[in-house]
Write a structure and sequence with these properties.
It is built from 6 helices and 3 strands. It has 124 residues and is mainly alpha-helical. Helix 3 crosses helix 4.
């Protein structure tokens, strides 16, 4: 993943409404949600929701498909995983702490120690 693309993805997620929409899509899983359900869940008016969904789709974080009269949106999980991999590629001096992502799991005591993450509830 190119740094520029990662910056674009992170910028898209840097808006509170888009981040809320994206989290809802991630929680929904690969089957996704229709736009109306997202708007109801988050209390966003249709024009605002449409604008943010279009932005997430444009940068590649979300995909859309038509099912009957509904537009279904879903998170693009490979793009999300690529972004997470890019962000954690050099975690712990380049040694993967958590298989598949390169990130340390906060619940893994060995990973916390190796990556110098503070224990939950501990001081930093």
């Amino acid at each position: 993943m190119e740094t520029l693309n990662a910056a674009e993805l992170l910028a898209a997620l840097g808006h509170e409404s888009r981040l809320s929409i994206y989290r809802a899509l991630v929680e929904a899983g690969p089957q996704g949600l229709h736009a109306g359900a997202i708007g109801e869940r988050l209390g966003l008016p249709a024009p605002t929701l449409s604008f943010h969904l279009a932005h997430l789709s444009r940068v590649g974080l979300a995909r859309r498909r038509q099912e009957g009269r509904f537009m279904i949106y879903a998170a693009d999980f490979p793009v999300m995983n690529d972004l997470l991999g890019f962000l954690t590629a050099n975690c712990c001096g380049g040694n993967p702490c958590m298989p598949g992502t390169g990130a340390a799991s906060p619940g893994d005591a060995r990973a916390r120690q190796a990556c110098e993450l503070p224990a939950e509830g501990g001081s930093s």
